[in-house]
Amino acid sequence: MNLYPLQFYPQLHERIWGGVKLNTILNKAIPNNSIGESWELSTVPNNVSIISNGAYANLSFQELINQFPNEVLGTKVYKKYGNQFPLLFKFLDAREDLSIQVHPNDDLAQKRHNSFGKTEMWYVVQAEPEAKIIVGFKENSSQDIYVKHLKEKSLLDLLDVVPAQAGDVFFLETGTVHAIGAGCLIAEIQQTSDITYRIYDFDRVDAHGKMRELHTEQALDAINYNKTEAKVSYQAVCNEPATLVNCDYFTTKLVEIDSKLIVQKNTDNFVVYMCVEGSGSITVDNLEYSFALGDTVLLPASLVEFALQGNAKLLEITIV
């Protein structure tokens, strides 16, 4: 067993709101002009990532975890989650507005779907000048007020719509009503869950003239009707990790490098890097592994010292 920085084949998903930026900006070979999501690293059933590099190329990531759980996940992560990889990493391209939606918390998701909840965060990689993001309610509200506006198709009157630009960070706790607006290219980190309650879809129809399913009743007791502060303020310093989000499910830092940065860690947990600007390399045991904008790399827990170098911005994700 000799683990190394792992990369994966992206899983590309067509969406009614998808576009071409996963290709034109992130250099992914998309099959058509409506690709909304690239699942970068996943163990969601039927969407398990396949390793694309090195000795374990073409092996399922879940199979590697099953063979070497402590070495891949880390002793602390394995003790808490077993063989289940607890996070899901994506890039999303919103050519049009996504539906307005909400995700349930752990308790509700476990009860209804035998699943984790879906706490998540967004990093805006690129945005058009008029791009917007919907994040929660403008003011504290209630279920009755929400239902009234939903029926009257005036839900947007209640919701906080904020401008989005490159470098913006949003932390979305479960229960936060939200939507990515047209023109946003997003890096998303979330719990391993594919549970979404769609509450409004702007009356859109698909290529067959059908509207997508709404989850009106299921969403009612999943929603946090109070105003939340989802946008994250942070100060980036070159060659010094800046904490963006620190929650029970993951810790994300922005690592901006313009030279060589030595990283030392223990074997408690893995580290994932998502490159959101520039390019560079990771050096482990005198072997160099390159990365570029749009790449996602997992450093198994057994790798305790490595070097980052180049000119890049990286999201560094761990479980503390």
Automatic annotation (TrEMBL):
<keyword id="KW-0413">Isomerase</keyword>
<keyword id="KW-0479">Metal-binding</keyword>
<keyword id="KW-0862">Zinc</keyword>
<dbReference type="GO" id="GO:0004476">
    <property type="term" value="F:mannose-6-phosphate isomerase activity"/>
</dbReference>
<dbReference type="InterPro" id="IPR049071">
    <property type="entry name" value="MPI_cupin_dom"/>
</dbReference>
<dbReference type="InterPro" id="IPR046457">
    <property type="entry name" value="PMI_typeI_cat"/>
</dbReference>
<dbReference type="InterPro" id="IPR014710">
    <property type="entry name" value="RmlC-like_jellyroll"/>
</dbReference>
<dbReference type="GO" id="GO:0008270">
    <property type="term" value="F:zinc ion binding"/>
</dbReference>
<dbReference type="InterPro" id="IPR051804">
    <property type="entry name" value="Carb_Metab_Reg_Kinase/Isom"/>
</dbReference>
<feature type="binding site">
    <location>
        <position position="120"/>
    </location>
    <ligand>
        <name>Zn(2+)</name>
    </ligand>
</feature>
<feature type="active site">
    <location>
        <position position="198"/>
    </location>
</feature>
<feature type="binding site">
    <location>
        <position position="103"/>
    </location>
    <ligand>
        <name>Zn(2+)</name>
    </ligand>
</feature>
<feature type="domain" description="Phosphomannose isomerase type I catalytic">
    <location>
        <begin position="9"/>
        <end position="115"/>
    </location>
</feature>
<feature type="binding site">
    <location>
        <position position="178"/>
    </location>
    <ligand>
        <name>Zn(2+)</name>
    </ligand>
</feature>
<dbReference type="Pfam" id="PF20511">
    <property type="entry name" value="PMI_typeI_cat"/>
</dbReference>
<feature type="domain" description="Mannose-6-phosphate isomerase cupin">
    <location>
        <begin position="243"/>
        <end position="316"/>
    </location>
</feature>
<dbReference type="GO" id="GO:0005975">
    <property type="term" value="P:carbohydrate metabolic process"/>
</dbReference>
<dbReference type="InterPro" id="IPR014628">
    <property type="entry name" value="Man6P_isomerase_Firm_short"/>
</dbReference>
<protein>
    <recommendedName>
        <fullName>Phosphohexomutase</fullName>
    </recommendedName>
</protein>
<dbReference type="InterPro" id="IPR011051">
    <property type="entry name" value="RmlC_Cupin_sf"/>
</dbReference>
<dbReference type="Pfam" id="PF21621">
    <property type="entry name" value="MPI_cupin_dom"/>
</dbReference>
